[in-house]
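Hey, I'm writing a tutorial for new members on how sequence and structure tokens pair up, and I'd like a real worked example in the thread rather than a made-up one. If someone can provide the structure for the chain below, I'll link this post from the tutorial.
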Amino acid sequence: MARYTGPKSKIARKFGEAIFGADKVLSKKNYPPGQHGQNKRRKTSEYGTQLAEKQKAKYTYGVLERQFRNLFDKASRTKGITGVVLLQLLEARLDNVVYRLGIAPSRSAARQLVSHRHIVVDGKVVNIPSFSVKPGQIVGVREKSKSLENITDALAGFNHSKYPWIEWDETSKSGKLLHLPEREDIPENIKEQLIVELYSKQ
């Protein structure tokens, strides 16, 4: 499936946030990309602000437009606050859970581990990054992949206690999704209500 493979620093500068993780460029060029990046820009319209928030969420979680729309439709049919449910569905994606567990340093790296069959869910290999992990399920590293250098490097010194909805077992190199995260436990700087407002107009 097609994914954004262009310069990530340009996207991070567009939103003024390190949405792909630590980004040295942002500290040097904290203005939008392009020849007019440093110029004062016109005030963004309400629609433009809502659209930018949706784009930021898509880039942050590495989700394409159709997938994102499907997740929003599912969230809108689910009991609860639509915007929060949308973020919970994004957080429950297998590639994101692998990232949150510290098995990979980024979501794109996590997606690659899943696609290359290094990850198991309840003991069975799952190679679909968009797989939705359910509370109670255990996500871990495939036995023959536990010694991979990129996995051991990512796990070294990782603080697993910062995500209270996940329980990590160092011995088995696996973690259990205890429950879907509450909004205050999701660290991403996303104004989900703007996304809800955007889709409500369509």
